[in-house]
Design goal:
By secondary structure, the protein is of the alpha+beta class. It has helices at 3-13, 16-28, 35-41, 46-58, 77-91, and strands spanning 33-34, 62-67, 70-75, 97-102, 107-112. It has a single domain, classed as Winged helix-like DNA-binding domain superfamily/Winged helix DNA-binding domain (Arc Repressor Mutant, subunit A).
Amino acid sequence: MDIQNSILIFDALSQETRLRAFRLLVQAGPAGLAAGALSKKLNTPHNTMSFHLNHLSTAGLISSRKEGRSVIYSANYDAIRDLIGFIVKDCCNLEVASIREDKRKGCSIIELAGYCCEPQAK
């Protein structure tokens, strides 16, 4: 992931309807949701929803497929993984966040440091 790709993704997610639609698609899993179902859940007109879904698709955050007369949209989990990796690896101090590989599980683990405050003296 480079800066230009991350800017495109952040731009796509910086609008409420698109962010809400994307969150629904993440929750729906790989099966995704039909455009009409998204429009209904978000109480958004079909043409407006189409505009927002196109924006998310251009940013690489979602993909679509035809099933009969419906267009089904699903989240691109690889894009999100890459964005999270970009943020943690390139934007955070290792004292705040790090990514480590768990070879046994075959996955990456993000570790976020907690902040503890000393009680203030009175």
